[in-house]
Design brief:
The chain is an alpha/beta fold. The protein has helices at 13-26, 39-46, 52-59, 81-92, 139-154, 170-182, 196-205, 217-229, 269-282, 286-300, 314-328, and strands at 2-9, 31-35, 63-68, 96-102, 107-113, 123-125, 131-133, 159-164, 190-195, 212-215, 238-242, 248-252.
C-alpha cells in the first residue's frame, strides 16, 4: 500500500485537493490517503503551521501532496502559514525543486535549489531601523543540486543553463565555480552560464532556447513563475520537491488565491499536473503520469476555468479529466 499524505492548507487549497482526491481514487493503484492540518488552518486551530503529528505523518509517507499555504489575515502575524512550508521543506530535506513549463513550442525544466540561500539565511532588524537577509551557500549544497540538474538533462535534450549573478554576488561566483567542477562528470551535457537578468529577458523573448535551467533559491522562485507565465499561467504550473531519501513534496504553485476561494472556479490543472509529477518522480509510475498528463492536455483544449478565458467550474474540469483519463490509461493498468 502506498501512503500519500494530503495537506489541503488554505484558500483554494481544499478545493483543488478535493479534485486531486477524485483523480487519485480513479488511478489503478492501491493508495492510502491521509489528510493532515497544515499552514494557516493549522495555525488557527492549534497555533502551529506544521503540527508535530503532521510532520510525523509526512515523514512516514511515500509522497506528500500539498494544496496551498497563505491566509491574508495571518500575513503580518508572528507565526505565518508560509513558515510551515519552509519548515517542511527543511525537515524532509527536499533540496531540488522541479518546475516544468511546456507548450507546443516550449519544453523546459527549472531546477531550483530549495533549502538554502536567502530564504534560509540569517535575518533581522537593527536598532537603526534597517533590516537584513543573508544569502549563503556551501559547496556541498551547490554540488548536489547541480548533479540533479545534469542527471535530469541527460533524460531530456542534454543542455543545462546555470543561472547566477556572478558579476555582482560572491555566492554566485561560488555557484559558478562549483557547477564548473561538476560539469566534467557529464561530458554528454552542454553547460552554459547565464546571468539572471539575461535569463529573465530570454525566458520572455525566446523560452524555447532553454532545456534545463539550474539556479539558486530566490532566482529560481522568480524565474519559474516567469516560465509559468509564458507557458499558460500559474493555474497550470506544477512542482515537485525532491531529496535523496524520503518522500517528495508535490504541489501547485498558484498559491492560496484567497480572492476566488470558495467560489468553485479554481483551476485544478496545476494540482492534477502535480499528481502526474508525483506519479513519475515519487512513485515511479511513469506510464500513469503520462496518461494523466495526456488527459489534462485533452481537457484543457475544450474545458477551461475563468483564468484561462472559459467559464468552467473546478468540478467540471475534474469531470472532464476523469473522462479523458479513462481512455488514456495504459492498456495493462488494472484496478486494485
Amino acid at each position: 500500500m502506498t501512503k500519500v499524505v494530503l495537506l489541503p492548507g488554505d484558500g483554494i487549497g481544499p478545493e483543488v485537493m478535493a479534485a486531486a482526491c477524485r483523480v487519485l481514487e480513479a488511478l489503478p493503484l492501491e493508495l492510502e490517503l491521509e489528510e493532515r492540518p497544515f499552514a494557516g488552518r493549522a495555525i488557527l486551530d492549534v497555533g502551529d503551521p506544521l503540527p508535530p503529528e503532521t510532520l510525523a505523518a509526512c515523514r512516514s509517507a511515500d509522497a506528500v501532496l500539498l494544496g496551498a499555504a497563505g491566509l491574508p489575515e495571518l500575513a503580518q502575524a508572528p507565526v505565518r502559514p508560509e513558515q510551515g512550508l519552509l519548515r517542511l521543506r527543511t525537515e524532509l530535506d527536499v533540496y531540488a525543486n522541479l518546475r516544468p513549463a511546456r507548450t507546443d513550442k516550449v519544453d523546459l525544466l527549472v531546477v531550483r535549489e530549495l533549502v538554502g540561500g536567502l530564504y534560509f539565511g540569517a535575518r533581522g532588524r537593527r536598532e537603526d531601523g534597517s533590516a537584513f537577509d543573508t544569502c549563503e551557500y556551501s559547496p556541498g549544497q551547490i554540488e548536489r543540486i547541480a548533479r540533479r540538474a545534469f542527471e535530469l538533462a541527460r533524460t531530456r535534450r542534454g543542455r543545462v543553463a546555470s543561472v547566477d549573478k556572478a558579476n555582482v554576488l560572491e555566492t554566485s561566483r561560488l555557484w559558478r565555480e562549483v557547477v564548473e567542477t561538476v560539469a566534467p562528470d557529464y561530458p554528454d551535457v552542454e553547460l552554459e552560464h547565464v546571468l539572471v537578468d539575461t535569463a529573465a529577458m530570454q525566458l520572455v523573448q525566446a523560452p524555447e532556447r532553454f532545456d534545463v535551467i539550474l539556479t539558486e533559491n530566490t532566482f529560481g522562485d522568480i524565474l519559474s513563475d516567469v516560465a509559468a507565465a509564458v507557458s499558460g499561467g500559474l493555474g497550470l504550473a506544477a512542482s515537485a520537491s525532491l531529496g535523496d531519501a524520503g518522500p517528495g513534496i508535490f504541489e501547485p504553485v498558484h498559491g492560496s488565491a484567497p480572492d476566488i476561494a470558495g467560489r468553485g472556479i479554481a483551476n485544478p490543472a496545476a494540482m492534477l499536473r502535480s499528481i502526474a509529477l508525483m506519479l513519475a518522480y515519487g512513485l515511479g509510475e511513469h506510464g500513469l503520469a503520462e496518461a494523466l498528463d495526456r488527459a489534462i492536455d485533452t481537457t484543457l483544449e475544450r474545458v477551461q476555468t475563468p483564468d484561462l478565458g472559459g467559464d468552467a467550474t473546478t468540478g467540471a474540469v475534474t469531470d472532464a479529466v476523469l473522462a479523458a483519463l479513462e481512455s488514456t490509461l495504459p492498456v495493462d493498468s488494472a484496478a486494485p
